[in-house]
């Protein structure tokens, strides 16, 4: 059996989480392969991140592309199964809560390959969210669960997960943010986009906000009202663009629609903004560390620590303008101390656990071979 573990990534948030883990494992001399499912295939949502984050080019690319949840997940499972049957791995590391994550977890469970889940234990307690289903199933199947915040440990304990499987390690996405902090200069990207000094950033793509004319219409109307307060720049995700434009997004003079941005440009834009309007989980975390007021257009969040320790606030389209006024007036201040273990060393902690686990498994296999009656024949 090949000794190299496999990292499975497929979408923008996975790359920022994987980069520090890959880097730390490399420093420990652990053999590893990077597999990109191709769930995100747009250059600004995928390829550019390998350059921005100094990630190695994928060893394996599945190129599955877009599709419904079932079609995309199934395509990843079929392609990944063939790879892992041909080249087995001692461990597969999965990240976050996207379709690539659950697809890999299920395939590995069927093949008897252990998995490690980075960003385990997050719960919105809303099973209408596809990501919640992905999180629940992945955590149920994973051998190693790497948890970003204390409430994640509590969630897993309530679900019957043993202490030996879960490890509180901090947030590797924050590792990536901190290691690149000096590169996040808002001025060049602001000047390139022709933005005023004071602006807000919007990034919205979740099905509850953009998949129906009614929801998208409420969202666009809310952005129009918010735009009376300050200019809004909106890098539009491909999955919601057509619906949002069909209900009038392009008609809002105060909302500047731009193509998706790479990691460095986007976080630079966020760092220089007066506020962020989002439905993204990762951006709730990044704004917590950057100290930028974050208004999350969702009824719930699987990252409550960004509210209790950060600058995040849950809003609806109808309450957005008032919340934005509060944020611009300084009502959402950043605490002096961030969430526990969001210190830039989560990747190292994860790598240490994985290296120890791999070493222990290797020793167990060697002892098993020596104890086998057929050994030495």
Tell me what you see in this structure.
- The protein is built from 16 helices and 13 strands.
- It folds into two domains: 5-169 and 345-371, Rossmann fold, CATH 3.40.50.2000; 185-328, Glycogen Phosphorylase B (Rossmann fold).
- α1 packs across α7 (172-179).
- The protein has helices at 12-27, 47-52, 69-86, 99-111, 130-141, 150-158, 172-179, 186-193, 207-210, 213-226, 238-246, 263-271, 281-290, 305-308, 320-328, 346-371, and strands at 5-9, 32-36, 60-61, 92-95, 115-120, 144-147, 166-168, 199-203, 231-235, 255-258, 275-278, 294-297, 312-315.
- 46% of the residues lie in helices and 15% in strands.
- The two termini are 20 Å apart.
- It has 377 residues and is of the alpha/beta class.
- α5 links the parallel β5 (115-120) and β6.
- The chain is globular and about 80 Å long.
- Strands 3-2-1-4-5-6-7 form a seven-stranded parallel sheet, sandwiched between helices. It has a six-stranded parallel sheet with strand order 10-9-8-11-12-13, sandwiched between helices.
